[in-house]
């Protein structure tokens, strides 16, 4: 989708909103949209157009691979709230729990054992919450 140079910003936003809802869930996006205000509206538009409408719509990688990359990047940067959100997204994108565990083990070698330890803690909280629901 995003490789078409004729796409408008509106098209990128519309495509991005579809992908964002499919990956993160309608409930998550609805919450984000409901809290949008004059201060945050431009940022919400920016991430919808660029992250979701330009990158996540590219044909070069499937969503499972994009989820694996995203989890690793979020571990590396220590963005734990976003990491938890993307653990849920990874499951929605078809990654199995065992595959998520393997991503976390891989991150222990290439990022750090403390980073992976924290990732396991956060992922387990998400998985336990999903199991309880």
Automatic annotation (TrEMBL):
<dbReference type="GO" id="GO:0051920">
    <property type="term" value="F:peroxiredoxin activity"/>
</dbReference>
<dbReference type="InterPro" id="IPR012788">
    <property type="entry name" value="Decarb_PcaC"/>
</dbReference>
<dbReference type="Pfam" id="PF02627">
    <property type="entry name" value="CMD"/>
</dbReference>
<protein>
    <submittedName>
        <fullName>4-carboxymuconolactone decarboxylase</fullName>
    </submittedName>
</protein>
<dbReference type="InterPro" id="IPR003779">
    <property type="entry name" value="CMD-like"/>
</dbReference>
<feature type="domain" description="Carboxymuconolactone decarboxylase-like">
    <location>
        <begin position="42"/>
        <end position="124"/>
    </location>
</feature>
<dbReference type="InterPro" id="IPR052512">
    <property type="entry name" value="4CMD/NDH-1_regulator"/>
</dbReference>
<dbReference type="InterPro" id="IPR029032">
    <property type="entry name" value="AhpD-like"/>
</dbReference>
């Amino acid at each position: 989708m995003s490789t078409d140079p004729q796409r408008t910003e509106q098209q990128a936003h519309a495509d991005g909103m579809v992908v964002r809802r499919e990956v993160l869930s309608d409930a998550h996006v609805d919450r984000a949209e409901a809290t949008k205000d004059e201060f945050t509206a431009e940022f919400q538009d920016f991430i919808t157009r660029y992250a979701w409408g330009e990158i996540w719509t590219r044909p070069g990688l499937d969503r499972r691979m994009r989820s694996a990359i995203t989890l690793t990047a979020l571990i590396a940067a220590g963005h734990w709230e976003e990491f938890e959100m993307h653990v849920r997204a990874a499951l929605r994108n078809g990654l199995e729990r065992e595959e998520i565990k393997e991503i976390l083990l891989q991150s222990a070698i290439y990022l750090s054992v403390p980073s992976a330890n924290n990732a396991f803690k956060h992922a387990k909280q998400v998985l336990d919450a999903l199991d309880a629901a």
